[in-house]
């Protein structure tokens, strides 16, 4: 009889523990493959989706991912409506004033996407051309900071990658400047024939998870990322999504502290 009561109590306690598992609210731009995107079943997939799910598992939680416009990601963390944001986000000193970031796990580069035969082979060739990028993104800031130097004719800001690439295909813009990994992925899709990467721009920008300023979960997230880098999990995820192994000294495999600057 006592054994039965003990077993029942154990089941009840286990049920309470399962119910009490913390749910992390994660914001994400839902059209950013291979970083994050919704599959045909409406579920999120991607490199950073795998990262955030692994982090959640390691800290005894589960991730609940919601799709947001890119600009809304920053409002969501500032207002603490989400616990974290994933969307190939670059650590910048300006962003660090209002947000916190985990350690980076990827060093990015920009790509200049054009229609085949556009006569663009370098950044210098953007002079006099119509260019576009995603609103409030690192590529947009990069372009605006170099407007005088590059001398492009006009700039168009987009809320979505899909709209930007639609305008590129239709000829409304001559070049789309964006994360090179995302552009390569998009241009490999069957419906994206006739588009290619005309130039690569090494920038050294560092991608990380963005969180509310001073988040109480920041150190736990960062520790989980360090563990993933040390035990090889991060490298396996990188190879899964980018089909090559990360370099031995890259940000993908090097544990780092929580950043206090973009340097």
TrEMBL record:
Its main location: other. GO terms for cellular component: cell envelope; membrane. The keyword Signal applies. It is found in: Cell envelope. PROSITE patterns: SBP_BACTERIAL_3. Belongs to the bacterial solute-binding protein 3 family. PANTHER family: ARGININE-BINDING EXTRACELLULAR PROTEIN ARTP, MEMBRANE-BOUND LYTIC MUREIN TRANSGLYCOSYLASE F. This is Amino acid ABC transporter substrate-binding protein. It comes from Phaeobacter gallaeciensis.
